[in-house]
Amino acid sequence: MNTPRVLLVVGTGGTIAGQAASAHDAIGYQAGVVPVAHLLDGVPLPPGWSVRTQQVANLDSKDMGPPVWQALLDAVAQALQMPDVGAIVVTHGTDTLEETAWLLQAALAPQRPVVLTGAMRPASALAPDGPQNLADAVTLACDARAQAAGGVWVTLAARVFDAAAVRKEHATRLDAFGAGDAGPAGWVEGGRVRWCAAAEGLVAAMRALVPAAPLPPRAWRSSPWPRVEWISSHAGADGALVRALLRQREAALRGEDADAPLQGLVVAGTGNGSVHAELAQALQQAAQAGVVVWLTTRCAQGVVVSGSHGRAVHAWPVTPLPPAKARVALQLQLMAAAAPRG
């Protein structure tokens, strides 16, 4: 008899673990209350699988940051080294879920599926969406095609997204997540995953954006993480915020400011990555001071085509990632460069 493969379900909190005083209240609730083990009540497992749970945190994902990310990276990285663990599901708040999904993909490059899910209604709601989302995440994690592909995936409202393309696109709807031009990679229907024809291309595109090898744990265990800020170009963007950040950087490098010095800036440009002229001058000053500047677009869909507003004009690297994920990617690049060798 074959030993059952283990599905590890890691809890970090969020609305999926939220509680309100009334079942009719889907807004005024406290996120991150219900333990992850309780969320699994009634969720079926595919044949040949057993489940194990681990509570890494139980917080509102608006408060997500390096301390919890470090613990989550450690938990997932350790699980990926266990021969009996065949897949991992992470329950997470929806507000920063896309950032954590990209962090796990970019830092760990997992060869086994890691699936993130959450909910738009708390567990105490009259009709919570969390139980079905979690059941779909289990189905996806144990799916044969996902098993073969590995990587980080997201599922909510029956849709499947890869970590590179997924974004929260609506503040309150149950189907709050989308993937812009890429669209869903598949759907979970009737306890099975129906993959779209472009799924392989999506996986290839996702893998092309990250290093082939995982980030060494000593990199993400370092503290503090590199300070990377995300700013947007807009009408009247005069660069004052960038200059203030540069003054703070100089003070921190002199030991006169306790906060970490600025190391990177992600700039969400207008349209095809255009940047207000005054902001561009401030960004050039930042680059000359040693700050790494990346350019993306603030638009909800599309990527910067660098032939018009990319390297040819500003000499800043252009990333296809949206601003929230680009910030995470730049943090990881900076910490990898700073990590001791050997």
Automatic annotation (TrEMBL):
Name of the protein: Putative L-asparaginase
Top-level EC class: hydrolase
Lipoprotein recorded as keyword: no
Keyword Ribosomal protein: no
EC number: 3.5.1.1
Residue intervals passing through the bilayer: none
A single MF term (Gene Ontology): asparaginase activity
Entry's family note: Belongs to the asparaginase 1 family.
Binding site for substrate: 61, 94-95
PROSITE patterns linked to this entry: ASN_GLN_ASE_1, ASN_GLN_ASE_2, ASN_GLN_ASE_3
Domain Asparaginase/glutaminase C-terminal as annotated: residue spans: 227-335
Domain L-asparaginase N-terminal: 7-196
SUPFAM superfamilies reported in the protein's UniProt record: Glutaminase/Asparaginase
Alphabetical UniProt keywords: Hydrolase
GO biological process: asparagine metabolic process
Active site residues per record: 15 (o-isoaspartyl threonine intermediate), 15, 94
Entries under Gene3D superfamilies matching the protein: 3.40.50.40, L-asparaginase, N-terminal domain
